[in-house]
Design brief:
About 30% of the residues lie in helices and about 20% in strands. It is built from ten helices and 14 strands.
Length: about 325
């Protein structure tokens, strides 16, 4: 059921549903989340069932404030404290050791927990209202079927879950501002490890942490958002350097492939019938529209998407990461 997320009565209804163990999809500044109360293992199990998410893949717990995070964390190591103080509310998830006996299903049984305080008025209102009903945190993965493209509008959520969407409340908060998921920093060992880049630049995270970010090693926790193949549209997606892309298009001639091209400039002389979408020149805009463009191309029945490689530079890390995982899908 779709409800207006800016309406106080809708928030109250959604918070009642969360408190009763039902699922609520809600907007955050990154992507839409599919939420259940984090302290209710049976409610969290519904998320895994609906998404088709394999067991052993932990969820992020969303909290209204740092104080609420303390309910789920054994202790925040100093580096996590600094990150949270500087960057919450915002598009940053920290992974820390989990408090004993809480949110076991949300954490998929791992000894750690992912925590995030979102900066979105609808998410915030929902978390506050749920808090008033005794719910300290809402476990929520991105509101999409496992392995697929995240939802950045309420309609994406409804389309994604089809008839299953009847079993949840979807709070409509419009298109999400950032468009790709939060940066995930594992702080559980005391040093920050970047598990998933987002739109917060590495420089900003490192400045807040007061130390360099490490790359994930063998000892880092498994994060399915960091599986090689993820965030995939139905069409096959391939990334190409601009010159190569233009050559490929020339060679293509008038082959009636269901081909789409997503590139920063429109190649001239492209065969008719090729769907072209211009990739924004700025990384913020590219991230904002990325998943909506992939969904739209799927809707148009395109079989193949050729994407021009994003420019170099850390501000493109998040977009590059999502594109390369989409391209890795079989
Ligand atoms: O922006 C976001 O992060 C969105 C919004 C809804 O908050 N959420 C999101 O959730 O992207 P999800 O489940 O699609 O991706 C969360 C990632 C997964 O790759 C998961 O494995 C990882 O975070 N993760 C969560 N808790 C973890 C933990 N304790 N240890 C390691 N990885 C964890
Ligand atoms: Mg996801």
């Amino acid at each position: 059921m779709l409800l207006d997320g800016l309406d106080a009565a809708s928030i109250a209804r959604a918070a009642d549903a969360i408190a009763a163990g039902a699922l609520v999809a809600f907007p955050t500044e990154t992507v839409y989340g599919l939420g259940a109360r984090a302290d209710d293992d049976a409610a969290v199990a519904k998320i895994f069932a609906l998404k088709g998410r394999p067991p052993g893949h932990p969820l992020i717990v969303h909290v209204e404030s740092r104080a609420r995070a303390d309910r789920f964390a054994a202790a925040l190591p100093p580096v996590a404290e600094r990150l949270v103080d500087a960057l919450w509310p915002g598009p940053l998830t920290v992974i820390v050791m989990r408090a004993a006996g809480v949110a076991a299903a949300a954490a998929a049984g791992q000894p750690t927990i992912g925590l995030r305080c979102p900066a979105h008025p609808v998410a915030h209102a929902l978390l506050v209202a749920a808090g008033e009903r005794g719910v300290a945190g809402i476990a929520a993965p991105s509101a999409n079927r496992f392995g697929r493209v995240s939802a950045t509008t309420a309609m994406h959520v409804v389309e994604e879950f089809g008839a299953d969407a009847d079993e949840m409340i979807v709070l409509d908060g419009g298109a999400t501002r950032i468009g790709i998921e939060s940066a995930i920093v594992d702080c559980s060992s005391g040093v920050p490890v970047l598990l998933r880049p987002g739109m917060l630049t590495r420089e900003r995270i490192e400045a807040a942490a007061g130390m360099p970010l490490r790359e994930p090693g063998d000892a880092s926790p498994r994060a399915p958002g960091t599986l090689a193949a993820h965030y995939a549209p139905r069409a096959k997606l391939r990334i190409m350097e601009g010159g190569m892309l233009r050559t490929a298009l020339r060679v293509l001639g008038s082959d009636p492939l269901k081909l789409a091209v997503y590139s920063r400039s429109i190649p001239s002389g492209t065969a008719t019938g090729v769907v072209h979408r211009r990739m924004p020149a700025r990384p913020e805009q590219a991230a904002h529209e990325l998943f909506a463009v992939l969904r739209e191309l799927d809707r148009q029945g395109v079989h193949l998407i050729w994407v021009e490689e994003p420019p170099p530079g850390p501000e493109w890390d998040g977009v590059r990461d999502r594109l390369s995982r989409a391209a890795a899908a079989p």
